[in-house]
Amino acid sequence: MKAAYKTLLLCSLIAIAACNGKSPITIGTMPDTDSGYQLGVSACYAATAGGCMLLAGGCNFPDIPAAEGGKKRYYKGVYTSPTTSEKLQWTKIGELPEESAYGVSLQYKSSLIIAGGMNEQGVHKKVYILTPSKDDCTIKELPPLPCTLDNAAGAVSGDRIYIIGGNIDGKPSPKLFTMDMRKPSLGWNERSPYPGRGRVQPVCAATDNALYIWGGFTPADSTAEATVYCDGAKYDFSTDTWSTLPAVTDENGTPLTLSGGTALATSDGKIIATGGVNNTIFKDAISGRYNCISKEEYMKQPVEWYKFNSKLLQFCTVTEKWTTLCNDKKFARAGALLTTDDENIFYIGGELNPGIRTPDISTFK
Q1: Cα separations (Å) of 159 from 133, 181, 279, 351, 359?
Q2: pLDDT in tens, 244-296
Q3: Of 143, 164, 199, 256, which residue is the least packed, with the fewest Cβ within 10 Å?
């Protein structure tokens, strides 16, 4: 009995130590330069490099809540802040050519790449690269995607950028696109598609050798019912082939979906992921069943009811096992972003429940 107690105590101490190192600390909020933005946005774009954070775009419901039929507003401001001080101090350094949210946010060296996205006018295929200076931002167009794109995922490996899933020309797609940033004039190449149905709002991250994807959802269509995914797949760069990955699980082995969450690869070859919707509640809603609660009441529940994922998870690419690093309600968001400068990880914006955004930006080691 004593041995069992010691083992339990040791496991508890290890868990506490891990959480103490990974609990998010709020270091600021969204900039207040543009009216409404300070309320917080989701589906924005961000990068962190050279001691600075670059933030752009996003959307929210600044006037009337979504649950009451409010109108969504899209933004195009570009902001920067040093990350070396205790609190973020924002400066507006430019504007995107158009308002944008729900595109793919990619950090390439000291620049931010924005691919696809949408606004009040619809979904587009444009791709921009933003490179900040002290008080300005250079924005250049890269070759456009071969199709309109929204709610996809992307990652960078070396000089190549990858985009997977999302809605392509308005329909969920498993397609994978890549572009070599050393020769961007050559444009986009299509690689072997993700196996199975297209996934909207998946998460992905890339190492030197492979692209990893989990979660996402597929609305119902004429061939199949709505699906929310917990499993994933690995794309091998050298062979242009996919292999299946086990489902994301918590410390108790319970499958989790990272749909609407966010992920990134760390410099030691592991993958960090957090946020996302609750599998049961979200699937009940998108399937149209509304067994958990009526359709009329779905958007009106308190934050805790939606049970967004509050766990910070780590995937080891060698063992292909998930570990729970921390459980903190500050992680329970959808449509947020993770960025890193290889020393600190930043967790940016997102929504606390459908339609309700948070302006908080947090950091952890």
Answers
A1: 21, 5, 35, 32, 32
A2: 999 999 888 899 999 999 999 998 889 999 999 999 999 999 999 999 999 99
A3: 143
Q: Which value, to the nearest 10 degrees, does the dihedral of the CA atoms of residues 45, 65, 334, 83 take?
A: 40
pTM of the model: 0.92
- The tens digit of pLDDT for each residue in 182-210 reads 999 999 999 999 999 999 999 999 999 99
- 126: CB partners within 8 A, 6+ apart: 97, 116, 117, 141, 144, 145
> Which residue has 């760069």 as its token pair?
237
d(CA 193, CA 115): 18
Tokens of 25: 């600390």
Stretch (H or E) spanning 8 = helix 2-22
Report which residue type is found at 234. K
Angle, vertex CA 353, rays to CA 348 and CA 359, nearest 5: 30
Q: What angle do CA 277, 257, 20 make, to 5 degrees?
A: 80
Residue 300 DSSP class: G
Q: Tokens 């070759």: give the residue.
A: 143
What is the CATH topology of the domain spanning 2-364? Neuraminidase (2.120.10)
Which residue has tokens 């609305």?
A: 219
Question: CA end-to-end span of the chain, whole Å?
Answer: 36
Please answer whether residues 301 and 293 qualify as being in contact, where contact means their C-beta atoms are separated by less than 8 angstroms: yes
Residue located via tokens 């359709």 = 295
Task: State the burial class of residue 283 (Cβ atoms within 10 Å of its Cβ: 0-12, 13-18, 19+).
Answer: buried
Backbone φ and ψ for 17, nearest 5 degrees, come out as -65, -40
> For residues 175 and 192, what is the distance between their CA atoms, to the nearest angstrom?
7
CA quadruple 160, 82, 126, 333: dihedral positive or negative? positive
Instruction: Name 141's bridge partners.
Output: 128
